[in-house]
Amino acid sequence: MFGIGFQEMLIILVVVLIIFGPKRLPDLAKSLGKGIAEFKKASEEVRKGIDDAIQESEETVPPPAAAEKDASAPGATPPVTGEPPAAAEKEASAPGATPPVTSEPPEPPAAAKG
Description:
single chain, mainly alpha, about 110 residues
């Protein structure tokens, strides 16, 4: 129990008996038992609330097939394609700007005509 052996538990009980005395020890044990019971009850309520919230969120999230149908609806946000928006392209082509990182190799420079 909590990594405490019999000898350690006995020492703790003797110290508690000396501090509180034999008259108050039953009341102390009773209130300690009630506190532990209330703590268990509260932790079960919290656990049940979390489980209910998880179940509720699973019920409200549409399956992936329904999400794809909703994406084609008018007013839906377009899917991310990985291409930068037009404003980002203008900023990237500005003088002194760093070129965007792409997965394609850069085009070779055009041969200078002379």
